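User: What would this chain look like folded?
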Amino acid sequence: MARPVVIAITNQKGGVGKTTTTINLAHCLARDGARVLLVDFDPQGNASSGLGIDKTKLEKTVLDVVQKRAELKDVILKTEVKRVDLVPATPQLANAEVELAGADRRF
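Assistant: Here's the prediction, encoded as C-alpha cells.
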C-alpha cells in the first residue's frame, strides 16, 4: 500500500496564487494517476467553486469537521475531475477563525 503524501499550500497574503496552484496541482496529480483529496480551508471557498461546487447547496463543510459536528469522511465530495475529491469550505469558516483564536491546540 502506498504511503499518503500531504502537500500544504499556504500563505497569509491574499492574491498570491494559492487556490490556482492548488487546483492545478490536484488536477495534474490526478491526471498522473494519484488520488487527491483537496481540503479547502479558505473562508472564501474559491477552491470549492473552482472545482464546480455550488456552495449554496452544501449540507456539510470543513467547518463541521473543525467544530466536531461531522467526521471528515462524511464531508468529502466527488468533483467533476476524476480522482479528485474535495472537502468544501464556505464563508462561515471565517467565524471559526475568531472562535478558535484563543483555543488550546487551535492549529
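The CA atoms of residues 13 and 42 lie 12 Å apart. If you want, I can go into more detail on any region.
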